[in-house]
Amino acid sequence: MNKPFYIDKKKIKSERTSTATPLKEAFENMFRRFKLDSKFNEIAVIEAWPDLMGQLTASYTQKLFIKDKKLFVQLSSAPLKQQLFLQRTKIIELISEKVSEGIVNEIVFI
Q: Which end of the chain is more exposed for a tag (fewer CB within 10 A), N or C?
């Protein structure tokens, strides 16, 4: 027969505190603990693209995704692609200011 499974409560370190934690801080801790903060920030960049670049640029954007800290942007307008290519360092700075630093290190226009 199998022995019953017992948990020694003295060995488990509880992260509960007696003080109330703000909801924003609790979610940030949860994202960090489950290593979801980088994915959450990537989604925030994609969602903020129309606000960052303007509605006209967003309307010409066909595909937008992040892989290995590179932002891949597919545009339907070649002149707009060239203009944004020249402004890519400024776009990276804008993303770092609005969302978070270090999410995007490079922009690739496809």
A: N
